[in-house]
Write a structure and sequence with these properties.
Elements lengths: L1 E2 L9 E5 L6 E2 L2 E2 L3 H4 L2 H9 L3 E5 L8 H6 L3 H11 L4 E3 L5 H9 L2 E4 L17 H9 L3 E4 L10 H7 L3 E4 L1 H14 L6 E5 L8 H10 L2 E4 L1 H10 L14 H11 L3 E2 L3 E6 L2 E6 L7 E5 L1 H12 L3 E5 L12 H12 L3 E5 L1 H10 L7 E3 L3 H9 L8
Parallel strand pairs: 1-9, 2-5, 2-8, 5-7, 6-7, 8-9, 10-11, 10-16, 11-12, 16-17, 17-18
Antiparallel strand pairs: 3-4, 13-14, 13-15
Helix pairs in contact: 6-7, 9-15, 10-11, 12-13
């Protein structure tokens, strides 16, 4: 697929797929990184006198209630403010209202593409009829939604089959930023894997274990690994359905995987740091200092570090010490440091450690799959 600058977009009707899947709480966007990083591509198209139709997903749509809770209207308002230009928001995903708006305005945002999933998963199932319809609205398709490049949906892979297509500045930035851990890895290469659940990361963890030299585990994922190792974890969050699979991973890659040796536990509001093998009551919310010392020794010897997910409940000051210490360790390390995924980047931005990293990727699963498989699935024929 071509880069946007290699396509003649002058005076064209352009369908622009962005990843505006941001976290919204109490009608407020918590982190607008993905929105702000879309501005360069939007402005390039407007500077070339294009009419622009913006598409994005937000959350998952399985019920009518999900539609009400995942409208892009708030995101559109946030983008308008950052762009400094008005954007016409259309509540439909197809039909005359959408077509008229795109014909008569310079920049339009369509409602959540996954609204089309409520009736037969047409978006996420890459429905051919839907892809053809969306493609019929424009003359050129630009994909700048790096966070969905690991998925073949109607709004990315589908549209690209029917229009001259290219990728935007954000995807180019991602490819350049991730190059040190995709094509030019300096070793030892250490992955720090956190997050709430192991469910959607099992296969990627296996792929990453084939690439990395060390896997340091934290967050709810660490709880599942500890449980699979035969340890008690009290009332801690873990993925019960994946215990056997994680056991197999531990058996095969025990020489690469490093688990917590002490953790921070809340037991009836009594917060304490205890041995990770001794959590009989309460729940784990953070890594302990002994674990972080072990991780520091490994990170000090690493040439390349990649972090995905969060290692503790950093949003709560009672449980953010592990995250802060990890970021301080990384800030002191003289190596290549890259973070990927909304939660990881949000924690870095919230706690003010942007300067500790060489690159912050906007992708979650997309970043992991690109590192593991070295390809962007949505660009495949």
């Amino acid at each position: 697929m071509k880069f946007i600058e290699d396509i003649n977009v002058d005076n064209k009707k352009v369908i622009l797929r962005l990843d505006l899947n941001v976290t919204i709480k109490d009608n407020q966007i918590l982190d607008d990184t993905k929105i702000s990083k879309s501005l360069k591509t939007i402005n390039y198209l407007l500077d070339h006198n294009c009419k622009v139709l913006i598409m994005s997903h937000l959350g998952k749509i399985k019920t009518e209630e999900d539609k009400a809770n995942n409208s892009l209207k708030i995101v559109c308002a946030g983008l308008c403010e950052l762009l400094g230009k008005p954007i016409v928001f259309v509540t439909a995903t197809r039909g005359k209202e959408l077509e008229d708006a795109f014909n008569n305005n310079n920049i339009v945002m369509m409602e959540n593409t996954r609204y089309e999933d409520l009736d037969g998963k047409k978006e996420s199932g890459n429905d051919e009829e839907l892809a053809k319809y969306w493609a019929s609205l424009g003359e050129v398709f630009i994909n700048d939604a790096f966070g969905t490049t690991h998925r073949c949906h109607a709004s990315n892979n589908g549209i690209s089959k029917y229009l001259e297509s290219g990728y935007g500045y954000l995807i180019k930035e991602e490819l350049d930023g991730l190059d040190p851990i995709v094509n030019n890895i300096k070793r030892p290469f250490t992955v720090i894997m956190g997050g709430a659940k192991v469910d959607d990361k099992v296969q990627l963890i296996k792929s990453l274990l084939n690439e990395c030299d060390n896997l340091l585990v934290g967050g709810g994922i660490a709880n599942t690994f500890l449980k699979a190792s035969g340890y008690e974890i009290g009332e801690s969050l873990y993925s019960a359905d994946y215990i056997d699979e994680v056991k197999d991973i531990l058996n095969e890659y025990s020489f690469k995987i490093v688990l917590p040796i002490d953790v921070v536990v809340n037991n009836n509001d009594n917060i304490s740091t205890i041995d990770s093998k001794s959590v009989t009551e309460g729940a784990i919310y953070d890594l302990g200092p002994k674990t972080l010392q072990v991780y520091r020794d490994i990170l000090d010897e690493s040439e390349t570090v990649f972090i995905n997910g969060t290692i503790g409940l950093y949003e709560d000051e009672r449980y953010n010490k592990g995250t802060i210490e990890l970021f301080n360790i990384l800030r002191r390390c003289n190596n290549i440091k890259i973070a990927g995924g909304g939660d990881a980047v949000a924690s870095i931005n919230t706690l003010g450690y942007q300067d500790a990293f060489n690159y912050l990727s906007t992708g979650g699963g997309a970043t992991l799959e690109y590192i593991a498989d070295k390809k962007l699935k949505c660009f495949e024929e």
